[in-house]
Each structure stands twice: as structure tokens, then as C-alpha cells.
């Protein structure tokens, strides 16, 4: 949609996944056997026809840049527009902006050069297949200054505690923004706003020494702005802790959860050409996601294996997430474990975590 330009802001997303974010930002963490967390919001914007996307990054973004490249999987490798990975620029001695507003202020030319009249703004921690076109139409119908995208959560989990909540009246207007933990309306850190109003509010915030757009431009002005709420009713998961990552990953082994995330519209990711998974005669695999390039000779149950994993004869993997090119040697046993990329578990080793707190091994480790 030519009327929308995308902003994915990673500046305020802390490295909350412990060992998984030692060497990468949270948006670059692998998920569901072949994807990265960033892929889901990128794909949602792609399906909405967004042709210009700015990605605001500050730290640990080398892995993210390698994954995204020029944006070809999301049809963003364009001569005009496309994908822009934008760290903040401190070369202007007169710049007084701070926080995430620094990204917007110092990369204002991205907004000025784009022809779109509206901005769709998002983070990467809320996984969904939200229809931004439908949200945009809702924004126009409501005649709103800003439309906040939220979802009603049936069962609140620990990861929802830090989420912002919305009160929405019968007409669809947001009447309050707060953090009451037992409230079901979870704000998904996504909004739509006219570009000119967006830039005007950014300038006002900077002039008053503010640093956070949602908090300082929207939440503090909720009684001055016409704020609409758009309710999203599809698959939703918040990945803001190691425990939420582990539980939501293994939940995808339930067919209804997997289908609700992937069947409505495809999720695009970096293309890697690998041979199909190979199952030896000794393999015993049940209720698991196994990616291309794997070679299985042992037992794998209720687990997710990324590309190129080797599970050798006699090894057992249960309730675990094994990332790219890990090697689990003969007779090793893993239960409730997360292995980051390129980990080697030697013969006969046993690693066991808890379903509420998995045992995690950092990237490039040999045990």
C-alpha cells in the first residue's frame, strides 16, 4: 500500500533472552525452526504492500544485517525506497534529541523522501499476522489522530506483565492507557499515524527534552488526541524473556497454534538452499519440527530442530530447541534444553532443564 511507510523500532527492546542475546539483538533470535523474530513484522508489512521500511537499531545488529541483507525476501531490494537499516547518527553537534527520538530526528530524510502519507510503527517482540491494510482502513473510518493496535488475551502469562494495556469504549476510542496487570487488552506496540502529525509530535517532544515517542507523544496526550483502538483477533505471542521464548516456541508443536500463525499468510525469511532432512534407520522422531539439512539417527520428541542439526545414533532429545548446525553426539541426552547455533554436545553427556526454566547453552560452545 503506497499510503503506508513502515518503521520498526528496536531501540527500546532490551537484550532479555539471556544467552540467546549475547551475540545478537532480540529481533535476530531464531524462531520456529527457520525464521528470526524480525521476520514476522517484516512479512506483515510486506503483505500490506509497504514499500519503504526503516529499521531503527542501536546495538548488536550485525547478525540482523546479515539476515536481512537488502530485503529481497520481503520484496524490498528496490532502486527507490526499500529497506533502510538506520543506526542513530551523532555527527550533528547541534542535535539535542535523545533516546528513540534521536533515530527519527537524525534520519528525518527517510520520512521526507517517502511518498507515503501515513506511518505504521512497530517493534519486533509481538508475533502476529496482523493485517495492516485493515488497520489502516479502520484508522481512516475512525477519523483518528492515531490508531493503536491491541489484542484481548484469554490467558495472561508472565510476559504480559510488562505490556501496556488499553481501555477501549464501545465506539472504538481509547479512553485510557495504563499497566494494570490483570487487564486483558494488551497493546501490541504497533500504531498508525499520519506522517506530518508524527513528525510534528517528534519535534515537540524533542523541544521538551523527551526521549520516548509512545510514552511522551501519545500516552501523555491521550486526552488531547483522538486515539482509536484496532482489535487484532489472530495468533499473538510476546517474546520478551527466555521463558516466553521457550514456551511459545514449543506451543507451535500444537497444530492449531502452528496453523493460526503460518496458514493465513506466509512468513518470509532469508532463503537458504539445503538438502531435505535425512532420517537414518535408527531415527525415532515424533511431534517435532525438523528443518532442512538435518540428519537424525537418534530419538527426537516434542522438539524443534533448525537447519543442519545432527542427532547421532543413541542420542535423545526431548522438549528442546536445537538451533542451526548443532551436533549431538552418540548417547547424549537433552531434556528441556535450548542450544544456540554451532553447539557440540559430546558423547554420553546429559543436560536437563525444567519446563519452567530451560537449560540454555550459548553459541559456539562445546560440552
UniProtKB/TrEMBL annotation:
Residues 282-351 form the Glucose-1-phosphate adenylyltransferase/Bifunctional protein GlmU-like C-terminal hexapeptide domain. Keywords: Glycogen biosynthesis, Nucleotidyltransferase, Transferase. It is an enzyme of class 2 (transferase). Pfam families: Hexapep_GlmU (PF24894), NTP_transferase (PF00483). Its EC number is 2.7.7.27. CDD domains: ADP_Glucose_PP, LbH_G1P_AT_C. Residues 16-220 form the Nucleotidyl transferase domain. GO terms for molecular function: glucose-1-phosphate adenylyltransferase activity. InterPro entries: ADP-Glc_PPase, GlgDAde_trans, GlmU/GlgC-like_hexapep, NTP_transferase_dom, Nucleotide-diphossugar_trans, Trimer_LpxA-like_sf. SUPFAM superfamilies: Nucleotide-diphospho-sugar transferases (SSF53448), Trimeric LpxA-like enzymes (SSF51161). PANTHER family: GLUCOSE-1-PHOSPHATE ADENYLYLTRANSFERASE-RELATED (PTHR43523), GLYCOGEN BIOSYNTHESIS PROTEIN GLGD (PTHR43523:SF6). Belongs to the bacterial/plant glucose-1-phosphate adenylyltransferase family. This is Glucose-1-phosphate adenylyltransferase subunit GlgD. It comes from Paenibacillus dokdonensis. The gene is glgD.
